[in-house]
Batch of 4 targets.
Target 1
Amino acid sequence: MRRRFVTLFVGVAALGGGLLTAPGTAAAEAGPETMAALPAETVATFKLATQDADWTAASQAVKAVEDTGAVTKVTPLAVATSRQHVGRAGLCHATGIETKLTPDGFCWDKTDDVTNNYDTVTGGWMPQGLTASHDSVPGGTVEGKHLYAVSWHYGKGGSKNEFARVSIADNLGGTAPSYGHVLLVVPSGTGASGTFTPVKNTHADGMVWYGNRLFVANGGELQVYDMRHLWRVTNLSGEIGVDAATKTSSARWHQWAMPMIGRYDIPGANIGGGCTPGQGTEICLSSLSLDRSSSPDALVSAEHVTWLSSVKGARGRVARWPLNADVALPKADDGSGIGTTTASAAYTSPVWAMQGIATDGTYYYTSGTCPDSWWVPGGPPVQDPASYNCIHRGRAKEAPHVLTRSPRLTQNLSYAPNSGRLWGVNESMYLAPGETQRTGDRVVFSVKLP
């Protein structure tokens, strides 16, 4: 087996050539693989396909639900500042991030720090995607606030994808953040029959807030929601939907719900995340981020290939999808507002177990396996608090190198042009050595890019 990285580049100085040999390995002369561009004929097969009829039906269903009077439209700021949940200011757990990158961020409350899908009694939630108001608008704020959104999937006893939610947080900077949870739902019905059901079979892998739209990646599909249709429900109960007789609504213990307004499919992939990464025209949508550095704006997606598949030579792919800012949707090939979109560029990534992707217009930043991770002889085991992930940095068509370690099981990344900071979220929920019950080490973090 050829190791992809055997030397570790740390911090800003390392990008100039300073080397630190990874534990349990020896320095090698050969450099890492490059982020290679895929041929144009291959890129041309990568499509986001959709149908106007689906959007029309969803629009009618959303109106039907709102016409019942059982839900009230609210703003993202109202959810974020509700103080339904109050987190903890700063990075309350060890992150492994280089201090010279001035790490910052916030933590969830203690319940959301430890909730997990391994719980066999109540089940629980696992965080995945990350986006923020710096994606929504170039100015970086919504109603004068820096807001952050994280997607989660729910499972029980090891199951996954039974429900999906989005947390919208007001990062107050130096004080405890306020946030609320929003259940993702599918609207249905017309006229007086409007109701909704939960979005099922959704891993909520990645997320981008673009204009009023909220894109959620789910393997073989891109789901679209609209922040202008955030609903406050009337009842905090385990039911989901509208009770037409009483004109009340519930969202499975959530105060808020948000309906899907449309979706795009990856041709050949199965709805519900059934997508094989790294193969053929089924380019999977795992992590998502936004790039405003070129025209038109672009949605950037990446595939997650497990570390074992990476060892065997499989490589995740990164794709760029042009956006139409006028309608805040993927740019249709035929010039219409809603239609099939072809990727504008794509690459293979040498980063093992790639989880997150973002770009500042010059470099791509990728979260994935560290060169001295647990699979390397002498590296710490995955459940060890010292088993961090790494953020890799490199230009397209060049070899990436490690910028810094990052929190264990780092997921999605998001670049904030207004501050020059890279944001990330992790899902980690392992038993550390000596622990008898799970204690969380989840953070929403940021670093100042060199």
Target 2
Amino acid sequence: MSNRKFNVAVVGATGAVGEQIVNLLEKRDFPVEKIKFLSSPRSAGTLISFKGQQIPVEIATPDSFEGIDIALFSAGGDVSKELAPHAVRHGAVCIDNTNAFRMEPTAPLVVPEVNSDKIAEHQGIIANPNCSTIQMVAALKPLYDQYGISRIIVSTYQAVSGAGSRAIDELNRQSAAILNGDEVQPDLLPVGSLPVKHQIAFNAIPQIDKFQDNGYTLEEMKMVRETKKILGDDSVDVTATCVRIPVVYGHSESVYVELKKDYDLEEVRNLLASAPGVTLVDDPAAQLYPLASEAAGKPDVFVGRVRRDLGNSRGLNLWVVSDNLLKGAAWNAVQIAEIIAAKAE
């Protein structure tokens, strides 16, 4: 373990994921020499508490990264595309939480419990996968290693915090309005930049991100492409339906997987129970299964409702839940930073 300390920058430090990154860096006692909090001009000057100091947020510019060793980005894809190359030019390793570099061949797409060996292949930028992909592949990795996987069908039930702080405000505002008997005026979801907006309170919206030419949303296609890249296996068939539901924190997923070999159900449970970063919660008789309300604020991926498919002897059904801002974003990024720090000379 290195005793070296690092100059760290957090880009998007005032956002929902950025706040979690800052909290984790402090809570985990990451070896920080100096830390910079960077954001858009709108948030500049905001004070963020870190290890007893009040540190002002600075405007993120191409020269903000001079002397920075590790830069954690969570300010949106456009910001990452613009600034991450400058951070690399200044010598920083960038861990990016956006979709900007995930499918770039030179950027490893990393879930530490699944493919931490890929971190060493970076050329300055390491991509954090989509939150929904992270929790699914963390749960499926031990099964993939033991049996192989031919097909994955996933339906997600995603929290509004995945769309940012404004989406949380929108859910709260709409819920209050409906309970008061008032009319609801949606103004954000499913996609802020598209003309049609739908009510999220007491509803389920089967659209996350923009529709693509093939009829799938970008969120769904992220899960398809990222799963193949993380597993390093283009032969795995993946199809996804992503739904936004009125939950604040915690994505839930119904995952159907077809394995390449026959399996023993008890062995599957043991593999899941012993997998790093995975907690098995699976006791139907006691009505114990993963819940978003219980996963919120915890770093693990929770798996339950483990059962055989009724029509395919190699088919398996799982219920997978995780805090989308923690394992789905901030914690995954900080884990990567910790691995880089531990291996530094």
Target 3
Amino acid sequence: MKGHEPAMRPPSPAPSPPSPERAAELRRRFAAEARAERPDLSLLCLLVAAAADGTLDEAGMDAAQEELDRLAGRLPYRPGGPQAWARALGELLGERCGFRGCAADYQRLQSSLLHEVLRRRRGLPILLSVVWMEVARRAGAPVYGVALPGHFVVGFGTPEGQVLADPFDGGRVLTGADAELLVVGATGAPLDASMLTPAAPLDVVLRILNNIRAWAAARPERSDVALWAVELSLLLPSHPARLRYERAQLLVQRGDFVGGALELEAYAEVVAAVDEPAAQRVRGQALAARAMLN
């Protein structure tokens, strides 16, 4: 397509995490931002990315924010209603800049890291949606994320006049039938109106971390990635209690038997209030972890 900017997609291995000192500082900042009155979605995503990629320093994080600003500056000034905003974003980001996804992106950790998505112009639906949202927000668009089951998209306008766009498909504007097909394909169930509500920033971040955990779960040699993703998830004000159990298992898997046992015992205390037999099983796992020291 004429005027299309080439995507930058050199092959690269999965990144290595930062030093323990840098990782601790990133966790501190992530926790503080997650508890802010209005959490900054782009900053939280970049803190996640820095936890994954030890080469992403402060200058790199600033450069990613500046790229979002630059892209926003290329949008037309207030193009019109929700439909016009959706088409303007699709023309700029999807057509001219080449942001979109493909099946292979699900196999790359980089597809969940904001700075890499900005660089490669490829990513998972939710990260491409973050780019759409952050660029559109900077330009003054009425934009938000919509967490359809199995496929994250972007919404513009009010619920009554909502327009959906799919950044993974280059920003294609979705009809009601298109959205229905996405949901049926992912769940087998019909689209429900409750699925179209705006996703809160922290819910978006938790879903990103869930994707990273799923990537790592398929690669046991990358339990380091699974561990930091779980630990960041636990810093969110609202998170599934079972993440503590997952963290305990990862600690044991990585040879920290005492730390894993302590976490299992703490989780058992939480579970005991509602399911004593399950708590007993977890306590047994804690004993087995301690026995590995002998």
Target 4
Amino acid sequence: MLDIPLSALEVAMVQTGTRAVDTLRDTAAFAQGVERLGYHRIWYAEHHHSPAIGAFPPVVLTAHAAASTSAIRLGSGGVLAPNHAPITLAEQFGTLAALHPDRIDLGIGRGPGTFDETIARALRRGAGPTTDAEYEGDVAAILSFLVDEVALGPLPEPWLLASSTAGAALAAGLGLPIAVAHHIRPDNTQAVLERYRAAFAPSRWCERPRVLVCVETVCAETEEEAAWRIGPMDVIKAGLLKGLSEIPFPTPADAAAHHFTAQERKALAGFRAQQAVGTPETVMHRLTQLAGETGADELMLTTPVYDLGDRIRSYELIKKHSEAMAAP
């Protein structure tokens, strides 16, 4: 039985045939739907210059969703520290936490949020990639500004996003809860968690190691329907395997007609086996298995499917099956 909180990561995919503004309008409906279903929190990811993902700042989406809901926790998963001045992030999320007490999270990550080097440099005012020391300094500064400069009252809950042992070591050293990007680099998950737990030092933010694992999750009434819905993301992943980053998010029908090479099919099958895709029974078995393997305190589900209704339906099926499993 899965007896830990379940949450949602919203990546804000922009579907072929729609506009980014349509995706933006869906965010409030998604937040309200997930809150109604009883999920613990929703996080928003930072992306830039992608035809498949909206360039919507997590702080703006968090504010919009907070105004559209009443209880669910909300925040960034993550906001990318190298793209922002530390005091700015502290002020933004500190203000949100003051406006919506005990509901705001500040998930911090490192990546540029884009595959385009020109855009990455523009975000950083011409600076190149951040060094380990610079990133560590930025994260420490954000935490310091939250406490010493903003001081608006209730603080946002800080998390560090990680998919490498270096990120795990930083989270452990600062005594932060960790969000592990299993949905991006599943082969690193166990090494990240081992490093984090071994090196963890208690802090004002967290007394013991605290782990959230993010997993790609698509649930439908049948295995065939789940495979249909994950098809567009398979096309995106196959493009990344070829070094193609600027791929629009296709319709399920276009994805079904896409030709995958044998090598791509093998890679996609290997990745999917480490995620949770299928019927409610299949998905809950895999989520329960992953929770056991990782000792996660919470699972965050990211569901990159084409239709808003299908996305919410996936979360609904999982929640209903989870509750049914827990019933006496």
